[in-house]
Amino acid sequence: MTWQADIITLFPELFPGPLGISLTGRALEKGLWACTAHDLRPHGKGRHHAVDDTPYGGGAGMVMRPDVVASALDALPGDGRPVIYPTPRGRPFSQRDAKRLAAGSGVVILCGRYEGVDERVLEARGVEQFSIGDFVLSGGEIPACALLEACVRLLPGVMGSSDSATEESFENGLLEYPHYTKPAEWEGLSIPSVLLSGNHRDIAAWRHDQSQRITQSKRPDLWAQYASRKPGI
Ligand code: ADE
Prior knowledge:
This protein is an alpha/beta fold. The chain is about 30% helix and about 20% strand. It is built from 7 helices and 9 strands. The protein has helices at about 20-30, 65-75, 95-100, 120-125, 140-150, 200-220, 220-230; strands at about 5-10, 35-40, 50-55, 65, 85-90, 105-110, 130, 185, 190. Helix 3 packs across helix 5 and helix 6 (about 200-220) crosses helix 7. Adenine (ADE) binds near residues 132, 136, 140 and 143. GO terms for molecular function: tRNA (guanine(37)-N1)-methyltransferase activity. It comes from Candidatus Kirkpatrickella diaphorinae. Specifically methylates guanosine-37 in various tRNAs.
């Protein structure tokens, strides 16, 4: 069955964008997933199809109207797919979320612009809010691409066995170990000698140790979670 992504946006021409090339692009051609971008503008109000209005309570910027957003959401088949709204105010999006979404039949993504979307429609339509990091972008389209790529690469048949996901960062709660390739010496820099030893057990132990060190120094939050699950660390 094709994993279906429907995206509601004021800029439908941005899709599939970067997802149309390489791994996700080939998967799109093979019909492993489908991507349909829906223009929000025709759902707008009045002669100018306004999609936003000034915020109650005052303040800067404009807010996307709940009736306009609901009209776009309700025009899609109500087939139980999760509806996602990327926003810096959302829960941090994680590999676990990507796995859960990839295991379903697809997603609907609502891309905001301006100051955001009226809270009532998010609650009334059970919309899940996700952030892709603690920084602010001008709209949800780039986060939508990031979220979709994270899901699509996990769909059955998308990644070959050579680029399997089992050794990736986050798979075991740790960041991945560093990688090296030829030449063995470059600008006077050599590679860790264990990688030339041919001893697979030593290599695995070195990689695991590197994963732990890197996670501990770069992501103390992940390290604390990992260590709490492994008494003795
Ligand atoms: N929209 C704007 N900034 C965002 C972010 N950091 N994550 C998700 N959606 C956003």
